[in-house]
Every structure is written in C-alpha cells, then in structure tokens.
Amino acid sequence: MPEGDDAGAVSRRSRFGADLRVVLAGRDFQKLFGTRLVAQTGDGIITAAVGTYVFFNASTFPTPLAGAGAFLVLYLPYSLLGPFAGVFLDRWSRRQILVWAAPIRTAVVVVTAGLMVANVRSLPLYIAVLCVNAVSRFLLSALSVALPHVTPRDTLVVANAVSDTIGGVMTALGGIVALGINAATGDTERGAAVTMLAGGCCYVAAGLAATIMPRDLLGPGPDQAHRGTGRLRADLAEVAAGLLAGARYVLGRRGPRAALGATGAYSFLFGPLFLMTVLLYRNYFYPGQVTVAESHVGTIAVFSAVGYACAALITPPATRWLSKRTWITLMLAAAAVATAAIGETFNESAYMAIGFLMYLTRQGIAISAVTILQEDIEDRFRGRVFAFYDMVFNAAYAIGAALFAAFMAANGKSPAVVAVIAVGFLIAAAAYRLSAGPPPGAASSGPGPSAAGSPEAGSSPSPAAHRSSS
After folding, report:
1. In terms of C-beta density within 10 A (0-12 exposed, 13-18 middle, 19 or more buried), how is residue 252 classed?
2. Residues of the chain scoring pLDDT < 70
3. Phi, psi of 219 (to 5 degrees)
4. What is the pLDDT of residues 126-169, one digit of tens each?
5. What values do phi and psi take at 406, rounded to 5?
6. For 289, phi and psi rounded to 5 degrees?
7. Predicted local distance difference test score (pLDDT) of residue 346
8. In 396-440, which ranges are E strands?
9. Structural domains of the chain, ranges and CATH numbers in brackets
10. DSSP secondary structure string, 237-294?
11. Quick check: helix, strand or coil at residue 410?
12. Residue 307 CB neighbours (<10 A)
C-alpha cells in the first residue's frame, strides 16, 4: 500500500477511535444506551419464546404457509398503523414513551404467558403478541429519534453503529438465553410462558432505567408538545394531517427516500430467507428432533450476533472512505453473493456462515440508512419518518415471507427460491445506486475519505452538537 494510503488508513482508524470515545463518554448517551440494551434483551427473549412456541413445539408441525401466516399476523397490522405512531413521537415526550412502555408491555406479556399455559394457538394469542410487538416497535422508533439529542451530529454514524448494533447483539443474546430457559423447562407450553415472563422482567428494568433521564432531554421541544383538542375526531384528523405532512416530506428528499427503499428491499428478501432457514432446521436438518433443532438454531443465532457486531466495527470507517450510499450498495451486492454461494448448499455448517454474513450486511445497511435519515430529516419530522422506516422494514419482511412461502418446500429445501432471492439482492443494489444518486458534494470533492458525519443537503443541526458530550 502506498505511504499516503497508509497514512489515510491510520487517520481513519484514529478518527473512528476518537468519535467512539466521544460517543461513549456522553452521560446522556449512556443513559439512553442502557435503556436500549435492557429493552432489546427483553425483545430477544420474547421473540424467541414466541418462536419456540410456534415453530419448535413437539405438538406442532410448521409449514411454509403457517409460518408466513404467523409473520403476517404478528408484523403487518402494526406496520400499517406505524406511521400514525410517528406523529405522536414528534409530539409526546420521548422519555415518557420509554418510561410508560414498560408497564404496558409487561401487562400484555403476562396475558400472553397465560394464553401459552392454556395452550392457545389461535387469534387471541396472535393479538396479544401483536400488542407486545407494537409497543416494542414504538419504543425502538423513539430510541432512534432520540439519538441525535444525546450525541454530537458528526458522530452519528458511530453512535448508530454502537447503539443499534450492540442492541441487536443483546437481542440475539436474549434469544439464546430464552432458548436455554425453554430447554431447561422441557420445551413445553409452560416453559414458553416462563420464558415470556423473563422477558417481561427486562421490560420493567428498561422502564426504570429511562426514569433517570430528564423529561425534556430527548425532545420534542415545548412548542411541539402534543396537547390534543379533547375531541377524538379532531385529534384523529390532526394525526392524519401530520402523517401526510411527514410522507410528503420524506418522499420529496432523494437520499432518505432511497434509504427507505433499500431497507424495504432487503427486508422483503430477508423475510423468506429467514423462514426457509427455520424450516430447514425444523424439518430438513433435524426432522422429528425438535429439541436438537432448537439448540442448533441457537448456534446460528450466535454466528448472526457476531455478524451484527462486526458491522459496527466495519461500517463507520468504511463510510468515511466510500460514503454511506456506496456502502449500502456494496452490502446489497454482498448479500446477493452470500445467498447464491452459500444458500444453495443446504448444508448446516455452511448456514452458520450465511447467518454471519446476512446479519453483517443487514446491519451495515441499517446503520447507514438510519444515519442518512437522522442527518437529512429535521427533528420536527423525525418521528414520522422513523415510523415510516419501521413500517417499511416490518411490512416488507412479512409480505416477502408470505409471497415466497407459496413456492417453498415443506422442509425448506427450495433451490429456486434461493436463486430468486439472490437475483433480487442484485437488482436492489443496482436500483438503490441509481435512485440514491451521488453523495452531496461529490462533484466538487476530490478523491479520498468522505465526511460521513458532515452536514448533508436539507439537514438541520442536532441539538447535541451544541451540548457538551459529557
């Protein structure tokens, strides 16, 4: 490597380390980060508890259509209503949302655990789990919207890498803990209920952690606080008007619009791949051996968590050199290669690698896309935009699984489906590259690292940029 390149690499590593120290030293960031980690650990436990109850119970035999149906019931309804939640994120105290989400989620978790003990697998169970997911997704949107209030603007890429990625790792670890609890209790309905209650304890802890933050720390400002009219119809009309304003705002901005599209495309293709992997372990790799299959799914979850963590290390320095837009394109292309090269083997050991690579690319895209939204969207619109982001992510995930399930083998071994997904990732990479356009200032800038944290067109400074990081 030429001497200049060596110096540039050292400079990028030094800048990443400096930004990381600034982010981690911020006391307000530490409080928000702690709340996220505890909450997402609970999410991992709850998700695994529901997954084992539906997919890895000895009394059930999951099929592609049954799995896709569960995805649709659990994810799609809230996804369609999510943008309305975003209006409230722009008007209610985000700190209060984090505090009050805890008792609400815990109450619904207790109800869900009771349904599991009663061996209910019908609509009441799905409604209860849907309510838990709805509050969880609302809370995660609030955490993303709040982040620019607790970290300087030029360190947002690193802040997102740390908070989103380690949060994802905690979700995976929570899932692994849940699998252990479920196995220790005999993979029964009662075991799934006990696991659900463990997740509820994490939610209570997250709510308590949020109380140490000042009420107005995370925004919105006093002039944007939601007071309501006292009349239901007028308040609903106000929500609808705010929703339309948020939609017009994000669709009128090329960078955020393309980032939402890339996220949606990845989720649409990842959903069926995830469903297929569950079916492979349950019905192909270990048919009739539910407990063994469940334990091996825990192993692939560990590899996936490592991939998540690696994305946090790789993405910040990569986006300084390549730009966030180029990095998203490369991650989509890498997902295509991994799917085609490894997915078609239908080999259990190879699928450990695909778990690592898919979660690395998924989180690499997420870090970049979230940062683009935070930089390019004014704070008064961020709640609505992040609710759209959440809607696109979850709706595309469920719809993709449902559409591909019709062509999926009962045991999951579906070479044609894998091939179509791989081609889909390539198309998504090309489409994003064309729709996103060049990075701001590309025409006037020379070769070298791009300023990943530099202001982009249409953005407004973060309040944290003017606040001491400590």
Report:
1. exposed
2. 1-14, 57-61, 78, 82-84, 86, 187, 222-233, 235-236, 239, 243, 439-470
3. 80, 180
4. 889 888 888 888 888 889 889 989 988 888 888 888 888 788 88
5. -65, -20
6. -120, 75
7. 95
8. none
9. 18-219+250-440 (1.20.1250.20)
10. HHHHHHHHHHHHHHHT-HHHHHHHHHHHHHHHHHHHHHHHHHHIIIIIISTT-HHHHH
11. coil
12. 25
What is the pLDDT, as a whole number, of residue 335? 97
Produce one character per residue of 402-420: b if its CB has 16 or more CB atoms within 10 Å, e if not: bebbeebbebbbbeebbee
Burial 269-306 (b: 16+ CB within 10 A, else e): bbbbbbbbbbbbbbbbbbeeebeebbbbbbbbbbbbbb
In single-letter form, the type of residue at position 363 comes to Q
The span from the CA of 266 to the CA of 249, in Å, is 23
- Count CB-CB contacts under 10 A for residue 239: 18
Specify the pLDDT at position 464.
Answer: 36
- Structure confidence at residue 61 (pLDDT): 61
Residue 247 CB-density burial (10 A; 0-12 exposed, 13-18 middle, 19+ buried)? middle
How many helices (H) and strands (E) the chain has is answered by 14, 0
Q: Write down the residue that tokens 């109450």 correspond to.
A: 107
Residues 274 and 339 sit within 8 Å (Cβ to Cβ): no
From first CA to last CA, the distance across the chain in angstroms is 38
Residues of 64-88 as b/e, b for ≥16 C-beta within 10 angstroms?
beebbbbbbbbbbbbbeebbbbbbb
Instruction: Report DSSP letters for 153-186, one per residue.
Output: GGGHHHHHHHHHHHHHHHHHHHHHHHHHHHHHTT
Count of beta carbons in the 10 Å neighbourhood of residue 118: 12
In the prediction, which pLDDT does 107 show? 94
C-alpha neighbours within 13 Å on the C-beta side of residue 215: 6
Q: What is the DSSP letter of 439?
A: P
Query: What per-residue confidence (pLDDT) applies to 14?
Result: 66
Instruction: Find all residues with CB under 8 Å of 137, minimum gap 6, and list them.
Output: 78, 82, 85, 390, 394
